[in-house]
Amino acid sequence: MKFGALILLALASGTRMSTLVEDVYSVGPGRTRYLDIAMPAEPVRVLCTFEVESPAAAPIRAQLIGDDGTIVAQTQATSHGGLSSRPPRAGRYRLVLDNRSNKQAVRVALYVRLVYGEGPMAPVSRADPRKGQILVLCSMAFFGVLALYAGARIKRNLDRKS
Q: What's the pLDDT at 115?
């Protein structure tokens, strides 16, 4: 019953996902490889994940670049990672796989998806520190009571056997 309700909520939310790329690419030594992505007018989030298949642990960088050359999102040079970005406006963007730091070719498994209809992100707010302290103290008290109870049961069982 709960699963059905979750499915209905997911369908009612209006978000949908489309896969643009799910393939392995080869990027030459000291080179870049790029993919053009057309962003529609509606709100869309770009999800990109990559993993270097060979040679293992060779670092590359992924970048999402706008038409005007501005970097919208980028990763650190790593052998696996990803980025998630909501470009500020519709238009053409370019996803760049940067292998300029390596002296050998790499094979990269790349997954690029677009998520449509995502609502605006809620502002980030800090939790109340007092509530955090109360939560930690209650957790410690619960653990202490549980440990004392378990110790008493173990002691009682040992006293019975002897």
A: 85
Amino acid symbol at 120: P
Does the structure show a pLDDT above 90 at 91?
A: no
What is the H or E stretch that residue 93 is in? strand 91-98
CATH number corresponding to 13-116: 2.60.120.680
Total Cβ atoms within 10 A of residue 26? 14
Listed range (49-53, 75-79, 119-123) with the worst mean pLDDT? 119-123
Give the domain ranges of the chain: 13-116, 130-162
Structural element, H or E, at residue 106:
strand 106-116
Query: Half-sphere exposure (CA, 13 Å, Cβ side) for 148?
Result: 6
What's the CA gap between 75 and 96, in Å, rounded? 11
Decide: 142 and 93 in contact? Cβ < 8 Å. Answer: no
Report the percentage of the chain scoring pLDDT > 70: 88
